[in-house]
Amino acid sequence: MPEEQHGPGGTPATAGPPTDIGTAPPAGGSAAPAAPAAPAVEVEGLWKRFGEQIAVAGIDLSLPAGRFVGLVGPNGAGKTTTLSMVTGLLRPDQGRVRVAGHDVWGDPVAVKARIGVLPEGLRLFERLSGRELLSYTGRLRGLPGAEVDQRATQLLDVLDLAGAQHKLVVDYSTGMRKKIGLAAALLHNPEVLFLDEPFEGVDPVSAQTVRTVLERYTESGATVVFSSHVMELVESLCDWVAVMAGGRIRAQGTLAEVRGDAPSLQSAFLELVGARGRGTGETLDWLGGAR
Ligand SMILES: Nc1ncnc2c1ncn2[C@@H]1O[C@H](COP(=O)(O)OP(=O)(O)OP(=O)(O)O)[C@@H](O)[C@H]1O
């Protein structure tokens, strides 16, 4: 059984979001819709083991549509494994996942048509140029050629890749690879976008552009779910947060709920994952000593 989930400072569970919050209208939307929107992602009793290692231990998640959702947790918490199962890249041992109202494993074609994914350790077609990669992805997505060309031109331009569009992907830098992967994930205008560490290796100017693009995208009612270790980034971008540690969800809810009375998301996070006071480095007393 999963252990009881508490917010920081012992406040009762932010786990299992209250339905009134879970069905709130998209951030940035003005007129409230009459019918409550279905969650973008619903996860029930999801498990994954790798041999003896339990990577994901029976988690439940309900991520509202139209939000910027951050999935945070320490190294090895189970974020990538969770995102892989939610996006249909890894089969769970047990549990159910629905994305945009469709069962990920029961109706994979419907789900894949509605999502965009920027996975960890992104594998790209290295011998294509950036533009060729987008053309190929657009065609695979069933978009008309002229539409693909137009969207590719705009994405390359906005993401500052126009100058490198004819360069082979194998010659792209880490940040450029993230950006072309993001462009490919956005090309078909998905309902839900999953991004595993999207800002890793991306320079501050491009990061700002990516933020602006993603903020505009969520304002249209679409959902972004991204994993990150960078709390300041999550705090400034996300309006909904799920905290994972040891394969379990420690808290989920609005940023304010998860932060609770803590001065920052970072402090709340350290408390939630039980890392307060750890890692002062005192055991490394030889480091910096006499040589
Ligand atoms: N293919 C695999 N085979 C064996 N163990 C795995 C595999 N994938 C993940 N794990 C283990 O499952 C646990 C969760 O890993 P996961 O990659 O999901 O964590 P994470 O939260 O994404 O970590 P990080 O922030 O470091 O990327 C870890 O203990 C990891 O060693």
UniProtKB/TrEMBL annotation:
Residues 1-36 are annotated as: Disordered. Residues 11-36 have a biased composition (Low complexity). Its main location: membrane. The keyword ATP-binding applies. SMART domains: AAA. GO terms for biological process: response to antibiotic. It is a peripheral membrane protein. It comes from the Bacteria. Keywords: Antibiotic resistance, ATP-binding, Nucleotide-binding, Transport. GO terms for cellular component: plasma membrane. Residues 41-271 form the ABC transporter domain. It is found in: Cell membrane. SUPFAM superfamilies: P-loop containing nucleoside triphosphate hydrolases. One of its GO terms (molecular function) is ATP binding. This is ABC transporter ATP-binding protein.
